[in-house]
Amino acid sequence: MHIDHADAPLRPIKYRRSRLSMLRKNLKRTSWPARIGLAVVILYAVMAIFAPVLAPFGEADVVSTEPFAPWSLVHLFGTDQLGRDVFSRLIYGARNSVGIAFITTTIAFFIGGSLGILSVISHPWLDYLLSTLADTLMAIPQLIFALILLALFGSSIPSIVLIIAVLSATQIFRLSRSLARNIAVMEFIEAAHLRGEKARWIVAREILPNILPTLLAEFGLRFCFVFLTISALSFLGLGIQPPSADWGTMVRESATFISYGNITPLLPAMAIALLTVSINFVIDWFLDIASGLRDDQ
Amino acid sequence: MISKPHDTAARHTGEVLLDIRDLVVEVDNSGAWQPIVKGISLSLRRGEVLGLIGESGAGKSTLGLAALGFTRPGCRIARGSVSFNGIDLLRESEAARRQIRGTRIAYVAQSAATSFNPAHRIIDQTIECAMRLGGLTRQQAIAQAKALYAEMQLPNPNEIGDRYPHQVSGGQLQRAMTAMAMICKPDLIVFDEPTTALDVTTQVEVLASVRRIVTDHHTAALYITHDLAVVAQLAHRIMVLRHGELVEEAETGRMLADPREAYTRSLWTVRNLEKPEEAPTQPILKVSHVDAHYGDFKVLEDICLDLPRGRTLAVVGESGSGKSTLARVIAGLLPATSGTISLNGAALASSLKQRAAGQLRGIQMIYQSADAALNPRHTVMDLVGRPVTLHTGLKGHACARRVVELLEMVELSEHHITSFPSELSGGQKQRVSIARAIAADPEVFICDEITSGLDQLVQEQILKLMLNLQKELDKTYMFITHDIATVNAIADNVVVMQRGRIVQQGPKHELLSSPTHPYTKALLAAVPQMDPHWLDGVLNDSTARLRRQEALRQSALV
Question: Do B417 and A13 touch (CB under 8 A)?
């Protein structure tokens, strides 16, 4: 921070709120589902980041001569069809499934969000062009479209990420466009134009802070959808390819066990379900805070 | 000819219809119950009109709703009783209360535009209650509604009900809403600021209709408003409320002539601010022969005006007259299609993008609604500091110091610097808007209805602040307003606009004392005066003309 030396003897003015105190205030307002959700999300993140440390065995190592071994102390959840440790693969699965879904959603938001705002502040014809494009993409069922594109481009991880990101970006484009449009007609935007602000300032300081809470909440929801889409693609055999561990693929590989009363294939499915529910709890809390900023009084 | 409610002394001997005793209403403030009505008692006789006055937060609307045995969500009636015609509403079941509401007690809300369902025709909404609770058939109810529309002097009473709410004017909608309240011939109507959102010329119409119908049907009424002059026309008795408590209660005549409490007197004086005449100066801003269009629609036509340096020009007219459009054209937000605007002798480009930074700085706008004009995600430091940085280059602590100076100029203090707009009151928010405008150090301030969203006392403070700032800083104001009292308080010169044209302009005293244009006359006549007999006088000489105008406007709309 710049401090003018000539004015140094003057009493300093406290003109910023400390972010820490605001964070503490918001954390105090969490409900118990939000706390559970937050804990689960953090747990998954830790699992994804420290997978090599946490997992007793390697991701693709064949560690047992016995395929489909039952649960034991060495292999907590048994082994799969090749004799790999299911527990280790579950932990690595967090890294692949969650990590890829996160990257995909982030790219989708970057594309959709920036194009949405751009179409509001720029020329009407660009808005028309982008909206028509988004409508066209949205008109085709997403999963089928993704399958066709994956068949075209091959199912490598970069192409999965890009295809799903672009397809999800259409909805985010719609949302950010309508949010930004509501803000762009407000008088404080007019006031910013009147004092001669550049477009960059108007987007970054006037529009973005007002639409960010809603966009972030949408990020959580969209993350769940992307996650489920990737899992569905993996289940269909077009997603993350072996030998990478992935929850969708793991469900498929051991799906037949369910008819023998073995719950092992349900474990990755439950991991998916738990994360989705937890994220929704966190979003609810977040929306509560975001709207609370205005409705506090 | 309308009989004056003030003369019907016989009514005062009527039986007590509504009796509220020691009413305490509390609001849920995140877990803690805080009282907003603190033990108010009132009684109302049949056919009597009681005015409730107070600033916002005085608890007058809450009290009005409590008369229906109702509280807003998040509120509860903690103590007291509300007895209507001998029935204790608070002890009755919700079903029983619902039978009474609409049929025996009716409610007219402030904004008819948001109270009508836009998807249904007016007539269907008017008769709904009569059919559900009043036991009328559809034909009977429609016949009654039409009769009431005629009584409310709505144009085409037989057909207007077939329109949708957006197809009639605001004043007509407010009258339709009063008709809706009257349809079951209730004993009591609660009017919650029914004319606040209307133009003065429309307000007269609605007031006259309300008074006529209340008198003719011998209906008791609670009339809630913040405008004394309005309530003086209708009420037999006035109660002044503040912070949920009763300040003073008296008969209307006594209350107007001899208010006892200091707070009541301060309410009285607000409307009497008057800026003394000052010597004319050279114009700083010149607008000549300006036209402007929205698409193909001409919104401004041949506007010529001068803003003398260090003086205030008030632009008056009803909504839709083009006052705000003129402000936008001068600011450069809406490029003029022809004509010139010059500041300090230098011509201004018509569009904002072509104006130089210094020219942008020279004209600053202050908006009506500080809620919309202040970014809710910025603190006061961000809001006021940004123009400081932009125009002076000050940053960090130096900028903060300047912001504090500006806040002190608008009578706010240093601790407001970290506040978000949502943490400030309406008056404080407007002060922040003013500070933001001063931060740019402009020559001309365009003030677009900056006091109309505020309570009267706050209005007075803001007007005084603006006057002081003008004296200290020698700034020029263009003050857009529809309120003649505001014009009196602040203006040196006045421009009257109607349908995108200037119909009359001149020095304030000259224009207000001798209006030449018929529209100016109608506008001035429609301003409520603190005289209980004002409405009678106005109705006798200007009703006919106003009605003609309304008919004209209707034909233009259709």
Answer: yes
Of B331, B379, B395, the CB nearest to A17: B379
* HEC profile of B402-454: HHHHHHHHCCCCHHHHHCCHHHCCHHHHHHHHHHHHHHCCCCEEEEECCCCCC
Q: Which of A17, A188, A295 lies nearest to residue B418, judging by beta carbons?
A: A17
Contact A209 B395 (CB under 8 A): no
Residue A223 lies in a domain: yes
The size of the A-B interface in CB pairs under 8 A is 96
Closest residue, chain A, to B440 (C-alpha): A195
Read off the DSSP letter of residue B51. Answer: E
Residue A214 domain flag: yes
Please check whether residue A243 is in contact with residue A225, taking contact to mean a CB–CB distance below 8 angstroms: no
CA-to-CA separations, A188 to A79, A151, A248, B436, in angstroms, rounded: 61, 49, 48, 11
Distance from CA of B379 to the nearest CA of A (A): 9
Q: Could you report how far apart the first and last alpha carbons of chain A are, in Å?
A: 32
Whole-Å CA distances, B28 to B36, B91, B509: 10, 22, 50
pLDDT tens column, B14-23: 788 899 999 9
**Mean pLDDT on B237-241:** 91
Question: d(Cα B497, Cα B313) in Å, to the nearest integer?
Answer: 13
What is the Cα A272 distance to its own chain's centre? Answer: 13
* The predicted structure's pLDDT at residue B541: 59
- Locate the chain B residue with the closest alpha carbon to A182: B372
- Of B361, B374, B404, which has the smallest distance from its Cβ to A188's Cβ? B374
pLDDT score, position B11: 43
Name the residue in chain A with its Cα closest to that of B353. Answer: A196
Place of tokens 């403070």: B461
Give the chain B residue nearest A18 (alpha carbons): B418
Query: Chain A within 8 Å of B343 (Cβ-Cβ)?
Result: no
What domains can you pick out in chain B, each with its CATH number? 5-113+188-270 (3.40.50.300), 283-370+443-528 (3.40.50.300)
Q: How far is A225 from chain B (nearest CA, A)?
A: 30
Confidence of residue B313 (pLDDT cuts 50, 70, 90): very high
Count of C-beta atoms within a 10 Å radius of residue A203: 18
Residue A249: inside a domain: yes
In whole angstroms, give the CA distance from residue B521 to residue B518: 5
Which ipTM was obtained for this model?
A: 0.76
SS3 B17: strand
Residues from chain B contacting residue A294 (CB–CB below 8 Å): 376, 422
For A264, phi then psi, to 5°, come to -55, -45
Contacts of A197 in chain B (CB under 8 A): 390
Q: How far apart are CA B231 and CA B412, in angstroms?
A: 33
Q: What are phi and psi of B503, to 5 degrees?
A: -95, -25
B41-65 b/e (C-beta count within 10 Å ≥ 16 → b)? ebebbbbbbbbbbbbebbbbbbbbb
The pLDDT of residue A103 is above 90: yes
A296 vs B400, B422, B436: nearest CB? B422
| Residue A137 host element (H or E) | helix A124-139
> In terms of residue numbers, what domain contains A170?
32-295
Instruction: Report percent pLDDT > 70 for chain A.
Output: 93
CATH code (residue A98): 1.10.3720.10
B367 contacts A296? CB cut-off 8 A: no
Query: Is residue A112 situated within a structural domain?
Result: yes
Which has more pLDDT, B226 or A152?
A152
Asked whether the CA dihedral B77, B83, B84, B86 is positive or negative, the reply is positive
* Subunit contact B367:A187, Cβ cutoff 8 A: yes
Domain count, chain A: 1
B422 vs A4, A7, A297: nearest CB: A297
Mean pLDDT, residues B149-170 taken together = 86
Report the alpha-carbon distance of residue B385 to residue B396 in Å, rounded.
Answer: 9
